[in-house]
Amino acid sequence: MTTELPQDPFMLLSVVNMKLRDQYASLEDLCDDMNVSRTDLEEQLCAAGFEYNAEQRRFW
């Protein structure tokens, strides 16, 4: 995971959802641009109880 993203899952959730809303058209775009593994990101947020909704482009 890149140092640009917080390690705390709740802060990570907030930052990722904000970036998806304001800067990126998809989770893939965010991960590619930030050089982050989508699998690692989803696993970290899933472990905290969140899952990605592609239709809404956000984690819940």
From TrEMBL:
Source superkingdom: Bacteria
InterPro entries xref list: DUF4250 (IPR025346)
Annotated Pfam families: DUF4250
Protein name: DUF4250 domain-containing protein
Organism: Pseudoprevotella muciniphila
Organism ancestry: Bacteria, Pseudomonadati, Bacteroidota, Bacteroidia, Bacteroidales
